[in-house]
């Protein structure tokens, strides 16, 4: 009978066959018998000899190789492929170019065996740098034939130590009880239970550029009860390669913003503008609530504000699908609470293909109008609404500015009808200033003016779909500059929608003209996949309110 596989080593790689060879050489040298671990190399679309290099180790390692076509930066997807196919109880995640100490795998396993509950292990990494500083010198100094001896020498000399040593010295190696220990679980050399990685959703493939996909994963491991620890014996050398600190910081900035909006907590928001090593002190100085406590309080606040039973809700959506993108989880939440939710679509959505992709036939704008109306109705039903809960005003997509008097009259008509039909307790609409897209901004501005004209004072929640990042990803700009500033005292409120995410994702999928390759002429969806992935990933929805 063969011995069970104790751990699976997952190595994503892309056009780095030389670096991969170093990593595989170090795995051949492990004191843990090769029969007790497997190696899963996941190639993210390399054009070099990566496949041949991986195959050359199959006689010495239990190695499996998986290949993905090159769809851009997809390291999260690559790691997920490894985790999905892992046979070991523990997954050790390393990057290609990480030279492991011969005892590293055994040390990772020892850390897990020493704890009854789940742990997330940070291995120690020598020679990691942020801007490839000292790269040439490090490359010359590494003893590839004896990495163990090289690491012992670095320890003795106190040279090229783990860049996180500053963090470890400040908080000690026993940092698990910090409010945010997950900030230093970097996937160049870490491990976690395979089942916990799977049960918490694995890596989020919405991260399509360098950075932050690992702390997103570690954040969820922390929320799921994993205890974080450092094992210095699980050591490795990070072999230098070309990189730019400034380019990486530009890349990761959008990822940090996504992380903050995805989880919607004060602690998560700190990653946007603060160094990781300072965040735990900031949490304590500001007395920020734990993420679970904050979300529980936000849930209670939102439920209380909605009322028991909740009052009628109006959602003003500039286009068919914006309702799902901005507040699909909240719509499903309100419907489940018993509220009557009505969605009003400003425009017909007819120009999505022509404006974004330059396609004006198959489908024509007229065909799109009819199809998108059906899609919006189907999405509304997924969220828990009935056929009478959607209203299409039918103004021309991308050109709402040309019909503002008529649009205003229709909005007043909708609001007066709503008054006669039980009133309105809550209104969701695009932010009248922060939204960049003209149809969005003008929808919000007009609805707010109409509410004021009628003397209606429902609770108003404002969303933002189109910001500069959205414009860049869609490669479409249609602005209308605001004539006002955001209301003083605005605050951002968070609504937890994790329980509603399956419905929200299913509702988004109903908009096939937008998220699929609907036209034969398309080579990309109207809604960029990276944008859609973030919509599917966010566990909270956030809205601006005018104080209170």
From TrEMBL:
InterPro entries: GlcNAc_PI_deacetylase-related, Glyco_trans_2-like, Glycosyltransf_2, LmbE-like_dom_sf, Nucleotide-diphossugar_trans. The keyword Zinc applies. Pfam families: Glycos_transf_2, PIG-L. This is Glycosyltransferase. Residues 8-139 form the Glycosyltransferase 2-like domain. It comes from the Bacteria. The keyword 4Fe-4S does not apply. Keywords: Zinc.
């Amino acid at each position: 009978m063969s011995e069970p596989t104790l751990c699976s080593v997952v190595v994503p790689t892309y056009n780095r066959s030389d670096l991969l060879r170093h990593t595989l050489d170090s795995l051949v040298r492990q004191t843990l018998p090769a029969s007790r671990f497997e190696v899963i190399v996941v190639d993210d679309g390399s054009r070099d000899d990566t496949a041949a290099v991986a195959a050359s180790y199959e006689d010495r390692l239990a190695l499996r190789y998986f290949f993905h076509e090159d769809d851009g930066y997809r390291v999260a997807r690559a790691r997920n492929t490894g985790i999905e196919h892992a046979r070991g109880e523990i997954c050790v995640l390393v990057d290609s170019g990480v030279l492991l100490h011969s005892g590293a795998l055994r040390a990772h396993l020892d850390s897990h065996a020493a704890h009854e509950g789940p742990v997330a292990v940070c291995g120690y990494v020598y020679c990691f740098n942020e801007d490839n500083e000292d790269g040439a010198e490090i490359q010359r100094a590494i003893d590839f034939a004896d990495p163990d001896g090289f690491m012992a020498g670095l320890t003795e000399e106190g040279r090229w130590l783990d860049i996180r040593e500053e963090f470890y010295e400040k908080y000690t190696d026993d940092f698990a009880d910090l409010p945010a220990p997950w900030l230093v679980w970097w996937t160049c050399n870490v491990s976690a239970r395979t089942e916990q990685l799977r049960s918490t959703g694995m890596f989020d493939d919405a991260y399509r550029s360098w950075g932050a996909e690992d702390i997103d994963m570690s954040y969820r491991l922390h929320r799921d009860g994993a205890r974080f620890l450092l094992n210095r014996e699980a050591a490795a050398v990070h072999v230098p390669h070309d990189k730019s600190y400034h380019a990486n910081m530009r890349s990761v900035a959008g990822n940090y913003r996504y992380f903050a909006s995805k989880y919607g907590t004060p602690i998560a928001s700190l990653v946007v503008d603060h160094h990781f090593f300072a965040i735990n002190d900031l949490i304590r100085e500001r007395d920020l609530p734990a993420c679970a406590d904050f979300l529980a309080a936000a849930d209670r606040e939102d439920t209380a504000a909605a009322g028991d039973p909740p009052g009628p809700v109006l959602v003003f959506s500039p286009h068919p699908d914006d309702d799902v993108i901005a507040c699909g989880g909240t719509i499903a939440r309100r419907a489940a609470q018993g509220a009557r939710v009505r969605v009003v679509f400003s425009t017909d959505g007819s120009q999505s293909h022509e404006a974004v992709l330059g396609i004006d036939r198959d489908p024509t704008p007229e065909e799109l109008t009819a199809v998108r109306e059906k899609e919006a109705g189907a999405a509304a039903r997924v969220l828990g609404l009935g056929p009478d809960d959607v209203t299409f005003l039918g103004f021309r997509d991308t050109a709402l500015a040309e019909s503002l008097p008529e649009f205003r009259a229709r909005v007043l008509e909708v609001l007066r009808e709503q008054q006669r039909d039980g009133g309105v307790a809550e209104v969701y609409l695009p932010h009248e200033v922060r939204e960049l897209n003209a149809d969005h901004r003008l929808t919000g501005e007009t609805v707010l003016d109409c509410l004021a004209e009628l003397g209606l004072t429902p609770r108003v929640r404002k969303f933002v779909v189109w910001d500069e990042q959205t414009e860049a990803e869609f490669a479409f700009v249609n602005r209308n500059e605001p004539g006002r500033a955001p209301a003083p005292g605005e605050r951002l409120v968070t609504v937890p929608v994790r329980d509603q995410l399956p419905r929200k994702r299913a509702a988004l999928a109903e908009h096939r003209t937008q998220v699929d390759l609907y036209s034969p002429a398309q080579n990309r969806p109207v809604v960029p996949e990276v944008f859609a992935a973030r919509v599917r990933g966010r566990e909270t929805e956030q809205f601006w309110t005018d104080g209170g």
